[in-house]
Specification:
It is a single chain. The chain has 7 helices and 7 strands; from the N terminus they run βαβαβαβαβαβααβ.
Length: 260
Amino acid sequence: MAYSIDLSGRVALVTGASSGLGARFARTLAGAGAGVVLASRRLEKLKDLRARIEGDGGDAHVVECDVTDVQSIKAAVAHAETEMGSIDILVNNSGVSTTQRIQDVSEEDYDFTFNTNTRGAFFVAQEVGKRMLARAKGAAPGSFTGGRIINIASMAGLKVLPQIGVYCMSKAAVVQMTKAMALEWGRFGINVNAICPGYIDTEINHHHWQTEQGRKLVDMMPRKRVGEPKDLDVVLLMLASDQSHFVNGAIIAADDGFAL
């Protein structure tokens, strides 16, 4: 028997949607029928992505959002719900990193990473979660009570890697944040889970895999390969769907076994 996931009638907000995995997540959700709100600071890239989604028959809206600014988050979420309706699915994807040894991390490096990856992710999830809670309690209108929050952590939140220690710390915090939110919000039908991707070949890092350092890294991987963005599709769609109602607080590694 064929099995498919239909997200028709659902609204999904994807942060960090202007490129890389965020763009792929948005296209995947739209392809499954969800109306997608694309959020990022880079509006022109979002508009290009919206055109591609609409060209494929999907429904997308663009909203500017700087996750390091709580007021920007609040405005973006309010705008998204005004344009497309209540947010049923959040893909909390914005992330940044710097590369240096622990002793060389500056205050600016630390704040740059944590302000986006941890603080930003928290306040995005909190703002969307508040609205999901209000609907679940009957204090706000909405055709769907409950919700799905998918935090994009990293296998670096499960396995410490050299020269990106602060990034590992920030993503480990996202793992714990996911569990805390799942614990408090689960009884309201809000499922909060995390995906921990491994090394994925995107336009941002594609050139790296051709370098000597990149090839050495590939040789360290369990099956000596990097993933493709499409390798995360099935996990994303499962967690976004109604069928995942019994999956809450899960931390799912999609890293080809690298964190083992």
